[in-house]
Amino acid sequence: QVQLVESGGGLVQAGGSLKLSCAASGSIVIANRMGWYRQAPGKQRELVATITSGGITNYADSVKGRFTISRDNAKNTVYLQMNSLKPEDTAIYYCNYQRINSYWGQGTQVTVSS
Predict the structure, then answer these.
(1) Is there a contact between 103 and 4 (Cβ–Cβ < 8 Å)?
(2) pLDDT score recorded for residue 31
(3) CA-CA distances (angstroms) from residue 65 to 3, 6, 20, 30, 58?
């Protein structure tokens, strides 16, 4: 089992920045992929960004150039730096750990006011 604990969400004005963190613990396998997904009210959960343990990243088109995903393998922690936030970025952001199985955090709310 893998446990994920997210932090860093909150309320910010449009154009502002937030940084999310997700710490993984439990049965961590070094070669894995971690990432962030989000779900806005009435919408399906969607990919935001992922990063492999080797540092290969993938971003949704809607966040490219504004969000940066990074990780600290020694701390089993993944980060999401979100800049130039827009009201449409408002959602619950979920951390994900993917190896053979997929694990999810409880989510952290990000609200961007206009």
Answers:
(1) yes
(2) 80
(3) 30, 23, 17, 28, 12
